[in-house]
Amino acid sequence: MEEIENKGGQGRTELEKLGEFGLIERLTQDLPIHHPQNTLKAVGDDAAVLRIPEGHVQLVSKDLLIEGVHFDMTYCPLKHLGYKAIAVNLSDIAAMNAKPLQVLVGIAVSNRYSLEALEELYAGMRLCCERYGVDLVGGDTTSSASGLCISVTVLGSARPERVAYRSGAKENDLLCVSGDLGGAYAGLLLLEREKREFLANPAMQPDFKDFSYVLERQLKPEPRLDIVDLLEKIGVVPTSMIDVSDGLASEILHLSKESGCGCMLHESKIPVDLETCKALEMFKILPEVAALSGGEDYELLFTVKQADYEKIKDCHQVKVIGYMTEAAQGNFLVPENGTLVPLTAQGWQAFDKR
Ligand code: ADP
Ligand code: MG
Questions:
Q1: What are the pLDDT digits (tens) for 149-159?
Q2: Alpha-carbon distance 346 to 329, whole Å?
Q3: What is the 49 CA–ligand 1 centroid distance (Å)?
């Protein structure tokens, strides 16, 4: 996590000393442009001027992050928060099988925050924009009565025939997921435990050794734009797709409902990383439960036609975890031995009943 480590020991410049324009200037200076063909004017005028690539359609998405609701400043470093705020938006564009080009960032901030704190936030945002070649083209800045609110809008594009909707899955399509699941939830459990211990004894040092992967999964998720590239390279258009922000069970039910299908999800096929399993064990949580109900993994869940199996079977980043059925059959988790468990958005309940 070195590259995103917070710089310690900077001074504190009060926002009122800078004023709104001074602040905007500091936060937006020297923003790089990765797509000069598409970003004709970025920050600095009343509106950005953008061009959609020839033959593409435009995709737009927005996410709102509120302090105390979506993030907790006691354990979320501002640089990570900035990175994550951009990353989760890029993930929404990836989930349409499209590519992000630009983002706009609105912030409302209380005087509890200093210029240096906001510069940390923007350093994280810049890092994520840089990594994924996205242009930060504008935003808005205002004060808030308490805490920090961040609103990110992302603009992306794709050829219309490549766009993947939640509603396109058909009976017998294969259900696939990228990467592994449950890690972000394991990271959250660790951070919450450390926060409790820190509040009880502020002299305590956090014990995070051996858990860097799950902490990164929680604090610094990566949008799976590599999967969008991969699918293009192997010539597959998913019949449906969604990103896993709320847990696998809930996302599968979205695809099923929107597509008018049912599904069979094979429990033993759900990918969970070894470090995730070890972390979850400390909290006595089954890996499948964290994968089904944990959330914030930002992997891609998608369906492909059976005929595309040959094309995806050797892609190590993707796993086939089940298949779609007709709606009347319902949505089920198929355990390795034993009877089918109805899939519910709260995987907890399904597991409790077993
Ligand atoms: P206006 O008064 O027209 O809303 P602003 O002074 O708010 O203009 O913004 C000036 C420029 O700075 C605009 O290009 C705007 O998009 C950009 N901008 C404002 N706030 C932010 C921010 N938080 N992040 C990035 N760009 C910003
Ligand atoms: Mg404005």
A1: 999 999 999 99
A2: 20
A3: 13
